[in-house]
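Re: weekly structure request thread

Next one in the queue (262 aa):
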Amino acid sequence: MRTRAAGHAPAALFIVRDRSPLGNSFLRQEGFLTMGEIGLFEAIYSARALRRFKPDPVPDEVMTRVLDAAIRAPSGSNQQNWLFVVVKDAELRRKLSAIYHKGSQLMMKFYANRPRPAHMSEDEQNRLLKSASYLFENMHEAPVLLLACLKQEGAGAPQNVPPDLVEKMRGLQRASGASIYPAVQNIILACRAFGLGTVLTTLHLFHEDEVKAVVGLPPEVQTYALLPIGYPRDKFGPVKRKPVSEIAFLDRYGNPWKGKTE
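Done, posted below.
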């Protein structure tokens, strides 16, 4: 059966597929499945980074479903200390876009002073920079800007914890993203299911204090991603990647994983 995503152009058609006992049938029974979606692997294999958006508004019921998908992700100790700010106001989007643009200028200086990555041809690099540059200048065109955040609980070390253990725990600070980036990936896939384009960006972090001031985030909340969301001007998929055999190993580094994908 084919159904049309609410509020989207007539060309956007999605296939309802019931592939598992706890798939669409379960969601339909629970009252969650109100519009059609594509299959999981189709979403994974076609959710390209999309940076140009139509002005069509994203229905609130669709964003609610996207956010509900986000919070089904893993969360460290099940704290669920994530926060999401959905920015729809045009003036606020322009302010966030201007901050992102400032961050992009710093990143472009970095790109200008480093050699071309070995895995990219000159043409591939130029296409990437052209696409990224459009978003640098026009992020405000996306009808939704979504900030994915974490609330930092319990600042400071607990009492009676040995100093060496405190130091080791500080070394694990980079693991904090494990409690928000899985949710961001769920957002990306849920957007794909509803025919929405998006891309994970982080350049706003160069000026995070300004971002937090625009949307009124308290000091204990840190932002981890800024995602423009909207119906895309460009097409989905396929997502091109190196073969698994080049990046996966069996038992130890240097022993390639020999499995093949079709």
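The chain has one domain: 48-152+162-247. Confidence is low (pLDDT under 50) at residues 1-23, 25-35.
Next request, please.
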